[in-house]
Amino acid sequence: MPYQDDIALMAHLMRRAGFGATRDELETRVAKGYEATVEELLHPETQPPVDAYALLRYQPASLLPGGQPPMGNVHWLYYLVNTQRPLEEKMALFWHHVFATGNSKVDNYDQLLEQIELLRQDGMGNYRELLSKISTNPTMMFWLDNNQNHGTAVNENWGRELLELFSLGAGNYTETDVRECSRAFTGWTFETKIPRLPYGRFPWKFEYRPEDHDDGEKVFLGHKGKFNGEDILDIIVQQPACGRFICRHLYNFFVADEPQVPAWPIESPRDQKAIDEMVGVFRDSKFEMKAVLRHMFNADWFKNARFQHVKSPAEVVVSTLRFVGGYEIPKPGYGELSMNTAYMGQDLLNPPSVEGWHTGKEWINSGSLMARINFMAEKIGDISAPGVAGIISR
Amino acid sequence: MSPEQLVDGCLDYLGPIEVSTDTRQQLVSQANEWGQISWDNGSASASDQHVGQMLQLIVATREYQFA
Q1: Mean pLDDT of all residues in chain B?
Q2: Is the pLDDT of residue A2 over 70?
Q3: Which pLDDT score, from 0 to 100, does residue A243 have?
Q4: Which positions in chain A touch B16 (Cβ < 8 Å)?
Q5: CA–CA separation, A248 vs A227, rounded Å?
Q6: Is A381's CB within 8 Å of B66's CB?
Q7: Counting beta carbons within 10 angstroms of the beta carbon of residue A333, is it exposed (0 to 12), middle (13 to 18) or buried (19 or more)?
Q8: Does residue A380 belong to the interface with chain B, where contact is any CB pair within 8 Å?
Q9: pLDDT one-digit tens code per residue, A255-275
Q10: What value of ipTM does the predicted structure carry?
Q11: How far away is chain B from the Cα of A345, in angstroms, using its nearest Cα?
Q12: Which of A368, A391, A394 to mutate to test the interface with B (most CBs of B within 10 A)?
């Protein structure tokens, strides 16, 4: 049944590179072709953007939600459910797993949503450039205390996580490297916040304060010089460990479940050959994410890795809502709806720590399993929902 | 529509989803209790409900938790 095989393969691609697809969409995409669909996904600019004004008409509080859930969640859920650029949104979710930043400390969904927009716009771009933008993102700076990283009093939080969780992985640097990296980012901060009252919150803005920067000589990963932050990023991306770390993240998110990140120094990848291929593309393309994604989605090891990945709560909720239909308008009830990923163990915009979420089998416990099945069964059991009625009519 | 066709059709449209022999047998066992599915006069409403119920059973399977 070659056509049925094509449908199954396309369904696999759309589950991973997006949030699933209806049968009608799968049939349309099969007619278009697999590689052509991959290219469309890689070029989101060819598809219309989400209608942000519809969101604001129905849920105006989601524009600047402040520090209280669920309006920040409403905002992102609306994009996730309605996007016609599924890979763009999936990459924002991917980087949210990696550059995990949370409202538990930031207390500002306005800023978290701005960070998500950054990940949406640049998530498929150049990793080196993305690192630069996330290094100057005030939400990240506050989350990891770089506003408290001074030339005369170094705070290592950002420098450590940049190396451990955002680029190289544990075991690929020394404590001295953490110190020297952190020194290079002294003076990278954000403008003094304007008090919230009486007009409300003001956007945070990056600020470089040269008088607070340690301009002394540093020794970092074998290189010596009067490094600033950008120099550090240049050295980081040239490390073989960087490609291995980012590509293993991609493999875990898009292809098949890996052990949790802290175990990576002691547990080998489940498919070293696949990782090596991705690392080669990452290096040869000068860190272009789109090139790595293209290679990954067209590889046989991706096509054959069906049902090797436990759906994350975000994937469960979004794919269910897109499948059953009827959630194109952020109608009353969207707030409660948006919290369902949290009930299943994934509070979007509020990960448990900078390490992000543990994935794979760790999504499942007796409570989260009940939450996800009850949610899906309630939605999919509504035979009046457009997507379900469409199945019945077939 | 036979019980087996109901199960296979729902698995197909929800994915297609691949399930173990045991899971499929459990689903067919439930579908057997509903008997033949028909959309003839008088039975359409019940048949619609059975499709919805079968979809609910499938999303509760172990296999559906994987992407």
Answers
A1: 95
A2: no
A3: 98
A4: 4, 7-8, 11
A5: 29
A6: no
A7: exposed
A8: yes
A9: 999 999 999 999 999 999 999
A10: 0.96
A11: 14
A12: A391
